[in-house]
Amino acid sequence: DTAVSQTPKYLVTQMGNDKSIKCEQNLGHDTMYWYKQDSKKFLKIMFSYNNKELIINETVPNRFSPKSPDKAHLNLHINSLELGDSAVYFCASSQDLTGGAAIEQYFGPGTRLTVT
Amino acid sequence: AQKVTQAQTEISVVEKEDVTLDCVYETRDTTYYLFWYKQPPSGELVFLIRRNSFDEQNEISGRYSWNFQKSTSSFNFTITASQVVDSAVYFCALKNQAGTALIFGKGTTLSVSS
Predict the structure, then answer these.
(1) Confidence of residue B111 (pLDDT cuts 50, 70, 90)
(2) Is-contact B11 B110, C-beta < 8 A?
(3) List of E strands, chain A
(4) Do A31 and B102 touch (CB under 8 A)?
(5) How distant is the Cα of B114 from the closest Cα of chain A, in angstroms?
(6) Are A47 and A92 in contact (CB under 8 A)?
(7) Where are the beta strands (DSSP E) in B1-114?
(8) How far apart are CA A110 and CA A107, in angstroms?
């Protein structure tokens, strides 16, 4: 009965490869997110997405692309991986996107990506 | 600009001590939301509390309590009678009415020893 799940939990790959991280939520939420946590534990938004719009943090390289096959899934695809992409990536979901009664975000367990 | 400052990088206490984690935020919006998340050593992010800008009532949940003061733009978190299981990184976060993402502070690492 996991609320937000991610696969894989660990991902080790070489520079230049393309990889995907999958995220699924069973909370019935309308909005999903991807965050990046760097080696200093700093968390930063990468994407926000609901059925109406995709909001991209302008600092995110276009090698990163979110793909949502349906409301319960938001996968993260990364092209041409670089050493600096090594981090923990968290998926999250919330009922509402902006204001509202239920905007708290629930996070998945994280995917630790290591690029060698 | 929106910003969250957690000035305490690391705090170490002994079990049963009370500890307060500070959070100061900056926003120009009149409607905003504040959050605390816990990240234990296992790595997941656990939602603890949300506070709306129009609700300055303090909240207590077991050993946890939160003090929201708009006058000082602070949303501090106190753990009473700390336990080893409280050892974690604690993040304070801010979200404006129109914004979609959480703006996180850099986190405070709390270590509770027995």
Answers:
(1) very high
(2) yes
(3) 4-7, 10-13, 19-25, 31-37, 43-49, 54-56, 64-70, 73-78, 87-94, 106-107, 111-115
(4) no
(5) 25
(6) no
(7) 3-5, 10-14, 19-21, 24-26, 32-39, 46-52, 59-61, 64-69, 74-79, 88-96, 103-104, 108-113
(8) 8
> What tokens were used for B94?
């801010």
Q: Phi first, then psi: what are they for B15, rounded to 5°?
A: -45, 145
Which residue reads 């969250």 in tokens? B4
A33: which chain B residues are within 8 Å (Cβ-Cβ)?
100-101
Summarised one tens digit per residue, pLDDT across range A1-12 is 679 999 999 999
Query: Which pLDDT does position B59 carry in this prediction?
Result: 87
Is residue B15 within 8 A of residue B113, CB to CB? The reply is yes
* pLDDT value at residue A84: 95
- How close does chain B come to A79, measured CA to CA in Å? 24
